[in-house]
Design a protein that fits this description.
- The complex is a heterodimer.
- Chain A is an alpha/beta fold.
- Chain A is 51% helix and 12% strand.
- Chain A is built from 19 helices and 10 strands.
- Chain A has helices at residues 10-19, 37-51, 70-76, 82-85, 107-120, 138-151, 168-182, 198-206, 219-229, 253-270, 272-275, 303-315, 317-320, 326-337, 346-361, 367-372, 375-389, 394-410, 412-422; strands spanning 24-30, 57-63, 95-100, 125-128, 155-161, 184-185, 194-197, 234-241, 282-283, 286-287.
- An 8-stranded mixed β-sheet of chain A has the order 3-2-1-4-7-5-8-10. Chain A has a two-stranded parallel sheet with strand order 6-9.
- In chain A, strand 1, helix 2 and strand 2 form a beta-alpha-beta unit.
- In chain A, helix 15 (346-361) packs parallel to helix 19.
- The radius of gyration of chain A is 22 Å and the shape is globular.
- By secondary structure, chain B is mostly helical.
- The chains are: A alpha/beta, B mainly alpha.
Chain lengths: 424, 230
């Protein structure tokens, strides 16, 4: 037990010793997910039985102190009658470790414990799936762990069929920025469900990031960015639709955005030498068979988005002046005055984000204030996107996002300039 | 006539004697002030040197820089430190000079002025802190209110700015001992009055608005735009 990482309980250490090494490790971070975790465990057990029948596998549940029956459900749930689920089923059951995690409460801390256990078990292939999923199937396990186990990939990012207004932080910030920075088109960098090698799990542990936003929502973008920046073999896996337990979609926007975007900006500082010379982007291999999926409709009301953006355009310039240029401030003003709905142009949005990243680097404002002040601008960009794609087909909406991503790539020199200036 | 001339000459002589008697004291005072200025300059130079040697630039992760900028202060922490050290040198030089004076009316008067200086400087520091804290509070409230879509964001932020600044100004006035009892009473009455007026205005004058606002806040789904951010 020499691996660095969070502490593990004696019971877990004994289980690890008893298991020795494993081929496949499936991790499930959880917190009060009794409604959905039974389904996730069944899918995992069936997936391992069907797709990796000869492999030595373990299921690890890293729990944040659930006060409901989450942990009991993980311990007692099996796939049920495999013969009814799978045509060709192996009778093997999957070993499992259920443990609380140490550190700050959040998904990142939960995954850190899973990485530690993966490193201790010398796991060949690992995957993690969210515990609130309603659409996970046994096939997901094959698609996330298979490319690592059988094809030698080191990181598998998910590709979901999502509604155009589902995952708007991904669509307008994380995907285009990651693509422009590191030159690889990973469509869902913060998708939540990933496959990775045991060696990469060990590498994640070596980073000293576990006391900040990476311990929470920042973990997904940390994993993807680390894999891209370290030039690991990366691929995507098409998983179909992603449906999860309903929750208030707007309740946690600001803290979530602070955690994701601050991680993104921190990693820009860390990997400056990697992204500085990257131009353009290339696709990454895709596993799975992309097919049309009837995604859940998202009835969007843009009035509130527009009104917050407009109010911010009037009230927040004194704050924005701390890190935005006059050109960006003018563009915001123009976008707010445009018409019934905001029209924040791609070039302006890209420049705003690049200047925010540079402002982050020179600590122009405290972290929460800087990213908090981006929230209304992000809402304005989302409202713009909704207005542009309301009548569009899914393909047209995706093309629109691709144009935005291309604008990020084309404006890379702007980033280099503002970044250089921020060092003075 | 001669008598008058003698009286004028005597008065002039006394005035000259008095003037000549304070010249050394003034010279001592000026010399101390000069030493203070030199000490201030030396301290400022020393801090500049330390800053450049330690590369104390405004880098990410320096919380003081972030807080200064959040409060709208563009000067770096190093610049603020250098200014404080310079003026501290002058103040100490002045105090030493006054102490070196011969006992007399001048020393007594200057002593009172110099004795008052630390309290005045303390009060000035409190006002400066208040300006920073008020600006920080104003921006934080403004940002939170705008992001929550509250229509009173700007006026609310201004109100918070005034309240926080008033609090620090009251503390500063209290520190220098200006109308202490009146100040405490006035501040208490004003603070209580504002809270009472706001409660009445919100609860009675705009009870429909208050009801709608609370209902809206309690029903988060009413605010849902439909967008799924992640």
């Amino acid at each position: 037990m020499n691996t660095a990482g969070p502490p593990i309980t004696e019971d877990v250490a004994r289980r690890i010793q008893a298991l020795g090494t494993v081929d496949v490790l499936v991790g499930i971070p959880s917190f009060n997910n009794e409604r959905t975790i039974g389904h996730v465990v069944r899918a995992v057990v069936a997936g391992v039985a069907k797709h990796f029948p000869g492999a030595k596998a373990v299921l690890v549940n890293s729990d944040g102190g659930s006060r409901d029956a989450t942990r009991e459900i993980v311990e007692r749930t099996d796939a049920g009658n495999l013969a009814e689920i799978l045509v060709d089923a192996s009778p093997r059951t999957t070993a499992r470790i259920v443990t609380p995690y140490a550190g700050l409460p959040g998904k990142g801390s939960a995954l850190r414990t899973i990485f530690r256990i993966a490193a201790e078990l010398r796991a060949t292939a690992c995957c993690v799936v969210d515990s609130d999923l309603r659409s996970v199937t046994p096939g997901w396990i094959e698609l996330l762990a298979g490319p690592v186990l059988e094809q030698g990939y080191e990181f598998v990012a998910p590709l979901y069929a999502r509604h155009r207004y589902d995952g708007t932080i991904t669509n307008t910030i994380v995907y285009p920025l990651t693509r422009a920075l590191y030159g690889r088109r990973v469509r869902q960098p913060i998708g939540g469900d990933f496959g990775f090698s045991g060696a990469l799990a060990e590498r994640f542990l070596e980073h000293d990031v576990w006391e900040g936003p990476v311990a929470r929502y920042g973990i997904d973008v940390f994993m993807t960015t680390t894999a891209l920046a370290e030039k690991r073999r990366v691929c995507q896996a098409f998983l179909g639709a992603k449906l999860h337990d309903p929750k208030d979609p707007g309740a946690d926007l600001q803290p979530m955005m602070v955690q994701v975007v601050s991680t993104l900006f921190d990693l820009m500082i860390r990997h400056e030498t990697v992204w500085r010379d990257v131009n353009g982007s290339e696709s990454v291999p895709l596993f799975g068979f992309p097919h049309a999926v009837g995604v859940e409709p998202v009835p969007v009301k843009t009035e509130r988005l527009a009104s917050i953006f407009r109010q911010a355009a009037t009230d927040l310039p004194p704050v924005w002046k701390g890190f935005l240029s006059e050109a960006s401030l003018d563009a915001i003003r123009d976008a707010a005055d445009e018409g019934p709905e905001p029209a924040l142009a791609d070039a302006a949005w890209v420049r705003i984000l690049f200047e925010a990243a540079a402002g982050w680097r020179r600590a122009a404002l405290p972290p929460e204030m800087l990213i908090g002040s981006l929230v209304p601008l992000y809402l304005g960009k989302v409202a713009t996107f909704v207005a542009e794609t309301r009548e569009a087909t899914d393909e047209e909406a995706e093309d629109r996002l691709d144009r935005l991503a291309l604008e990020f790539e084309r404006s890379k020199d702007v980033l280099r300039d503002v970044w250089r200036d921020s060092a003075r | 006539m001669d008598h008058l001339q003698q009286e004028i000459a005597a008065a002039f002589t006394r005035l000259m004697d008095a003037f000549v008697s304070i010249v050394p004291a003034v010279l001592v005072l000026l010399a101390s002030l000069l030493v203070g200025v030199l000490a201030g300059l030396l301290l400022r130079g020393l801090f500049s040197l330390i800053s450049s040697l330690a590369r104390m630039r405004e880098k990410p992760g320096r919380p003081l820089v972030g807080i200064l900028r959040a409060a709208g202060v563009d000067a770096g922490a190093g610049r603020v430190t250098r200014a404080i050290s310079f003026w501290a040198g002058i103040t100490v030089g002045l105090a030493v000079g006054v102490n070196a004076l011969e006992p007399g009316a001048l020393k007594s008067t200057l002593g009172e002025v110099v004795g008052f200086l630390p309290r005045l400087l303390g009060a000035a520091l409190l006002v400066l802190l208040g300006l920073g804290a008020a600006a920080l509070a104003k921006r934080t409230v403004l940002l939170g209110a705008v992001n929550a879509g509250l229509p009173w964001a700007r006026s609310g932020a201004r109100g918070v700015h005034v309240v926080v600044l008033s609090f620090f100004v009251a503390m500063a006035l209290d520190h220098i001992g200006v109308a202490r009892s009146i100040l405490v009473a006035a501040f208490s009455i004003a603070a209580g009055g504002i809270a009472f007026a706001v409660s009445l205005a919100f609860g009675l004058g705009a009870r429909d608005l208050a009801r709608r606002y609370l209902e809206k806040k309690l029903r988060a789904e009413a605010e849902d735009t439909g967008i799924r951010h992640v």
